[in-house]
């Protein structure tokens, strides 16, 4: 059954309070799908549905729920139920949930957990948001350096970590330092008596718990890894970051950059579920800043009030010209911001990029000047046509070069290049456009 | 050694033409890093460096090169060398390269390949760009339905596909139909005599070769899969899409959406390496379209020329007001476009989103009216302050609601919601802003 069909059938079973049907149906869902279903339901309903699942499935479905909903549901659980659930969750996911619980409840629930789980949870919960530590899991397969292939396979069988983390096996020396890695594939393809030290890879890609998540995510994507080991300053293995978490990080990063490109602050969660005040708060700062930035355009207009009152027709072309400068600038900044984010363009490429943009913008400006000079000739005669055509070339080139350079400049200042949003570039291009346009008009019209 | 150090050492070894050192160094690179190094070098150099690698490594490094460079290098190779290389490449990657070769060379190289490889390449090269078929690989592990765990492990050992594709094993019936799947983990954890039909999963997530790539990528991300099987209409297994290709697709999709959000056409490749004409072509269309769209703003201004010439001060506030409408609109469209792209917001959510936007925009408009009315009072007195304050509330709300609704409207028309770019929204908001502003001014100032 498709997700939509399953969801509808489950909904009607819930209305009829048909417990037997509910129990059967919830087992048919993919865990991610059941979580998708539950996120639109009340906390009460979530609790009831989750109770129908065996512990392992419950923990998996629970892990797919949005964090805020997890916290709400967890609050309604018994302490014993919560401790059980935490023990079965992924170590990075349970740490996130744990950090949202009240301190009193944290202490109480820790008491009910086994010693090792408790220590793991305490440690994992201590890493700051956005760091590798916060997304790594301590659920990995490790074997001692001296093991043979057969012994290593045996250890892996006994510890049997999660499906996603069993395929890369980490080789540790006697003080837990990471000395090599090998894949489950290599284990099953080699002779059982072979010592693993002779087949493991010793050229290791690693990261540290306090590195930024996006760097780890980028490494996993660049080297096509299943998992990236995380070590401490003494080279001891402390956890691994898996490819599925890397995919989630990459998606969040893209969202953050896209929102920044629209001058919206990072939502850190769902747009559908964000409070109205949060949305207001994430938008108002830039809007007000840009109002004040627009005063520069306004001041430019005030400066040329005389020119304008003599040739009111110039106002007609104002939105065309400043709009075009802003649009060309937005294009240029969008290209650079994304190029820098994906690593396609490097900060050191500025001069080369500037030269290329100069030529491209010249071509764009000339084409648009042609378009606008026709309108200019019709509306205001040959002199006005000349004013608007030469202004168009100038403002499109200036707008493009500003838009293209701004991400590099912001980076030099230690800011995120993605701050060079379309609205910010458009506002700067507006001010530049107004000044250039009226200056050219004043010169050509001999005012 | 870090990538930067390795690259520098290799560069100096190349200058000294120290072949022994070069040979040693190239083996120390991660394949993705060596490709990164080579993409900045001449075709000649690439050929020489690649010749130092064993075939398997050469094929891997080659697969990481940008497609255009691959084609250039391949053109310089001997037919025999190229046939060897193609035989060792991933089946999806070689199909992409094959499609870029001249027909004559395609025919010649196919003749030099083994029958099975040739058939595979022909089939893979026939899928359209952007479809699942174009990124799937035929390199997977499959076992017959009747096998035991021990027999299955043996088959997997013998076929020993790539590291990334060995971990999910596909169970086929006697006419190659996909009937189940199980992981290598399950194989090694179960008793050897167990029939695989009793441990395999029969609830299958699958896709078809002609589905869009991004749908497969989203499924892999949503369900945390290592690979997604691709079946034909008869349910026969034709290939698999692996998680690393899904990550690449997700990154390309994000780039495409971001560029679209800046009214830049999809570059399908590197910004650094794109030709100037390509860049011009990807930008000019929207720029010219927006010039003509801006004529609506200009026409609005022409309509109120009398009001403007009476109160020139109104022009001073024009950029502030229309800029703010555009900025608020860009924010709203950015939020919706991303929400729709990630599946956070559904098309059916329009009414709810509209109601929420109405309230948020009201808050934003009132705050900004306060800011702008102060400037209005200072520059133009209380009447002008009233005009600009009430205009601000109106244009911010209209801009926001237009920006928020446009992605939904575009979707209804069968367009990509991401077409609702900041510049497009700003241009529409400009026109609406001009009309509303001067209408309010004319009314309040009693003209």
TrEMBL record, chains A, B:
GO terms for cellular component: plasma membrane. GO terms for molecular function: magnesium ion transmembrane transporter activity; metal ion binding. The keyword Manganese does not apply. Keywords: CBS domain, Cell membrane, Magnesium, Membrane, Metal-binding, Transmembrane, Transmembrane helix, Transport. It comes from the Bacteria. The chain crosses the membrane at residues 284-304, 310-328, 358-378, 384-410, 422-445. Residues 136-198, 200-256 form the CBS domain. It is found in: Cell membrane; Membrane. It is a multi-pass membrane protein. InterPro entries: CBS_dom, CBS_dom_sf, Mg_transptr_MgtE_intracell_dom, MgtE_N_sf, MgtE_transporter, SLC41_membr_dom, SLC41_membr_dom_sf. Coiled coil: none annotated. Pfam families: CBS (PF00571), MgtE (PF01769), MgtE_N (PF03448). The keyword Magnesium applies. Its main location: membrane. Homodimer. Belongs to the SLC41A transporter family. Acts as a magnesium transporter. This is Magnesium transporter MgtE. It comes from Nitrincola tapanii. The gene is mgtE.
